[in-house]
Specification:
- This protein is mainly alpha-helical and about 190 residues long.
- The protein is about 80% helix and about 0% strand.
- The protein has helices at about 10-25, 25-50, 60-85, 95-100, 100-120, 125-140, 150-170, 175-190.
- It is elongated and about 70 Å long.
Length: about 190
């Protein structure tokens, strides 16, 4: 999967190479990381359902455990993505990033500008179901009858899991771009 990782490139060139690598190896990435992605999506879905039950006994403990489980699963997902590269970027030194902080921050800004519309569109179904849950909860607090059907927590769970799974694989190119950014930073530092 490594295609000249250590080469002096611009930010846009690193992003283009990472995206090309993502497109050419999309099937391999999905097949090698589906277990970690599914675990992350299920932990996130459980977290969303637990967070929707505001006011229940032990609420903050449940939500804290859900956040911790989701973060651990996401870290395993990212580590598996990095390990899918032939040259293991986990052995890279973070000192090079501090020397080229402007280069790295410009990459982060450009990646955020690209990812923001994707996240906004993909999260629309989850936003609507969470909004319905919150509106129903506020109505129940003011004395209104329950307006949600009995299957709604299951719908919320499935929507959250599918949304997270979609986001993980739609934004996976960012992990590969970071590998090229890191390779470019190390190439620039080696020339000094």
């Amino acid at each position: 999967m490594n295609q000249e990782l250590y080469k002096n490139r611009s930010v846009s060139s690193c992003m283009a190479e990472g995206y090309k690598l993502y497109l050419h190896n999309n099937k391999n990435l999905v097949l090698s990381t589906w277990k970690e992605a599914l675990a992350t999506a299920l932990c996130f879905a459980v977290l969303v359902v637990l967070a929707a039950q505001y006011g229940s006994e032990g609420y903050w403990i449940k939500v804290g455990a859900g956040i911790a489980a989701t973060l651990v699963a996401y870290i395993f997902f990212k580590m598996k993505m990095y390990r899918s590269m032939e040259e293991n970027p986990l052995k890279w030194k973070p000192v090079g990033v501090l020397r080229r902080l402007g280069f790295y921050l410009s990459y982060k800004l450009l990646a955020a500008v690209i990812a923001l519309p994707v996240v906004a569109v993909v999260c629309i179904p989850l936003s609507l179901t969470v909004y319905a849950t919150v509106s129903n909860y506020l109505g129940l607090q003011s004395g209104d009858p329950d307006g949600l059907p009995a299957y709604f927590p299951y719908l919320l769970f499935v929507t959250a899991a599918l949304t997270m799974l979609s986001l993980l694989y739609l934004l996976a190119w960012n992990v590969l771009v970071r590998c090229y950014i890191q390779g470019s930073i190390q190439s620039k530092n080696a020339k000094k």
